[in-house]
Protein 1
Amino acid sequence: MYPHLPRSVVASAIASQLNQTQAILFHQLELPVQPQATVTVRQVKIIEHHWTTVEHQSVLQVRGTYRLSGAGWRQQPRSKLFQIYLQRDRDQHQWVSFHPSTPDYLQQENRQAGPIQTLQTN
């Protein structure tokens, strides 16, 4: 059974992943200040989604395309590909990003784990 997956949840997960990647790069490159540019993930198109098992966890694998816009970002002429993993929390009320095992050198305090969006379930 495939759950209803709002595009806003996927867009939030993509934005979170982009912010985490940016924070890791700034840390690894030892840059003094992280930019506070606001990006908006837009035109999310879900091409495929299905339940799978990763690291003994049931996750929803989502693939598709998106575009970015926002301060400091030029208009992107082409869509970018994405692949994310999402889980439902224990109460089935929220979507949470799932990140497969990450090498220790990439695990930073900047890495955010938590709910993407609270959903009401019936």
Note: Residues 92 and 121 are 7 Å apart (CA to CA).
Protein 2
Amino acid sequence: MIPAEHIELMRKANAGDYPEKDYFYRFKDRILRRHGRPDGWDRQIITKLCYRCGGKGYWTQCSICAYNGPCDLCWHTAPREKRTCDRCDDGIYSRHIYYLERFILGDTVFHILARIPENDPPVPLFVSTIEGRIAHAHVDEHEARMAAFRLFKIYDQEILRQMEEKEKVFVCGV
């Protein structure tokens, strides 16, 4: 059983952005599989809109000067020709689907990337579909980093040794 204050450290380390986060993800995977309660699957869809056309799938071009930008930047009043975007065709630059395993630790839901091939989706039903990135409450980089380091010191000091050797990160006073 993991104490509530350690679960809060997990939440902070999970929410923040810091350079050593890959180490935390490996740690989180092991902790959740060992101590978390499986709670189904979620599907996450990350869609990136095309920057060239602004997600419309087309752009307009001035019929006089061939300016390819917004109408207000071209001084001509000539009709604008609609052109299919040469990068995307439909306004979407890329779309990726990820399958996430849900775990409950204490009263907090955590996700880890499922270990399945993309063309072979899992059989279980999805709890939900997440459009875009998972939104976490903001946690300062330093606070998130220190939370991760404290968890490593409590549960897996080998990670700290690896970080000191590979990343040349000196962890002191955690």
Note: The first helix runs from residue 4 to 15.
Protein 3
Amino acid sequence: MLDQTNVFGTVELITPKEDADLVRSNAVANVSAVLFDSFKIDLQPGQDCLSESKLYSFRIPIQIPEEKSVIGYMQTLGFGVQQSTGARVVIVADLAGTTNVLEFPYGRNPDEPLTPLLFRRFFSVQGLDLATQDGMGLEVPPPYEASLMISVQRRQFPVRHLNPLKGIG
């Protein structure tokens, strides 16, 4: 029988705190979702910079039944990238101790359609370093913490770029 205990608590945005109203979350049983309403970078023509980055970090309290332990988290990152030809996009997802880098290099063919909504799955092992012959995992897991960063670079000033990150679940 599947345990339907709510494992995840309420999401706390660590940084930037002033954007807390742009983050939504939902948790049911052992699944939690964090959605970003406006996680984007838009380098407009005429701006006096060739690169920009944006970072969000958040925490979710974890509570598991006494007889259980956490061996890891399966995470699905959903995102869309709209990238002009002269722009490069890098997404760094540090998810519960596992770092993942997704790169969209310079040189997109302008005749190709824009990248649709994409999904990438990651697994972060918890407690492997504490494993014994009796088992592995964390009986009292720390809060789930994650940081998501988008970095955009362009080679010249008249390039326009937009990159919304949709969420992680």
Note: The longest strand covers residues 144-154.
